[in-house]
């Protein structure tokens, strides 16, 4: 079948022909006619089979009729990563060159101002990651009431990255009358449940077994000890006629270690992971596409959406924790019908991970060895996530940090004071001064008490449980009585009168003066009830 038989318009066919494509892939052949008819589509196909063009081509044809309003996009495409969103944007620019469609790309790491300006001009195609999409919606820069077509791409990756709650909220804001296209490389039960929730009587398009690998990729597995992994990687790159390659690591800190090791040994390598600023990520990826960088050490952020047809190798420096990620990683090579090779460097602790991958793809990965590097055996009892933590076995006693070789904090060394000779007279004087100081701070009702007699407990019964607080209460009482002793005493015949309550220690002098009766002159007449006295 040819593209001209799928029902696409002349402008789209002209753009496809200029790119060099004449025959659609199986997913494109089955999905494009249903999309053009306005039906919901549930597509499942392995990575590298042309899923992106299966919805971009018919969307260009559908959106070619109509005009967008300010801040009201006509279609929405949700992608899990910035690289995937940028890849879809490139497809729209490539195939929609003969259509006057406005497109906006909303991803993190880019200026809010530039993205808002595009939205205000009116957008026919809005391509976004969920996080940036919700940021602009909450700011009031996007209205979703005019969405005609919704595309949820790489839904299984959305699930892995925790975007499903955001997706559900976004879908709840869209009009019910719309066309929804749902694409995923794998179809676990959670994704199937979401598809049933979002789609209305969809047409299911499946062109290969879920989570199957391309037949154009030769897969190999090497099992070595942890300390030999970098040496094994360098040997493979040097001896296997590597043109360019992706090197996948599970953790960002391992990316830095592997990248530094390759550069130190003279390899032309770059690094790519999610914590890099967007400008640096774009620059590195473009350099790899252009051939300025031969080896790209990366995380799973590059496992999807990077469409480079001439990648010769993929190296899994770390065995992926999720078996589905293995399918996406090795799918970066062997694209567009070309041959590719994928090598996985595993350690004995990765036995369960390798077992899960082989169960998913339905076949055993071929083992191989490297001369000069000792080969190990897979262990199916160890937990790969606790590698290097030194967890004791069930029958072994738990060792201390010093036994495990961990760094422990030493207690500070206390210097003992040297012996000092004191004269007897000075010692007696110091003891007497200390005793006098204690008497000053004792409560007055205890000063005349015979210290040879034990203090009697005058507390009521049932208060024994508060005995542990006796010392604290005594300290409070001593402090209180000491404050009372320091107050100036006033005698009853003091002409200043009784103390004034409520002004603290600083009382104005005029308040302390005694009140005197007023003087009455003899000529004053006192009247009571109007009667002269």
Mean pLDDT: 79
Radius of gyration: 41 Å
CATH architecture of the domain at 3-206: 3-Layer(aba) Sandwich
CATH class of the domain at 3-206: Alpha Beta
- How would you name the CATH homologous superfamily of the domain at 3-206? P-loop containing nucleotide triphosphate hydrolases
Uncertain segments = 388-420, 462-468, 490-496, 523-533
Fraction of helical residues? 25-40%
Total helices: the number is 18
Classify the secondary structure makeup into a structural class.
alpha/beta
- Largest beta sheet: strand ordering: 3-4-2-5-6-1-7
- Major beta-sheet overview: 7 strands, parallel
What portion of residues belong to β-strands?
A: 5-15%
Look up the CATH topology of the domain at 3-206. Rossmann fold
Distance between the termini: 132 Å
What is the approximate shape? Answer: extended
Query: How many individual β-strands?
Result: 16
How would you characterize the overall build of this protein?
This is DEAD-box ATP-dependent RNA helicase RhpA. By secondary structure, the chain is of the alpha/beta class. It is built from 18 helices and 16 strands. The strands form 3 sheets. The protein has a 7-stranded parallel sheet with strand order 3-4-2-5-6-1-7, sandwiched between helices. Strands 10-11-9-12-13-8-14 form a 7-stranded parallel sheet, with helices on both faces. α13 packs across α14.
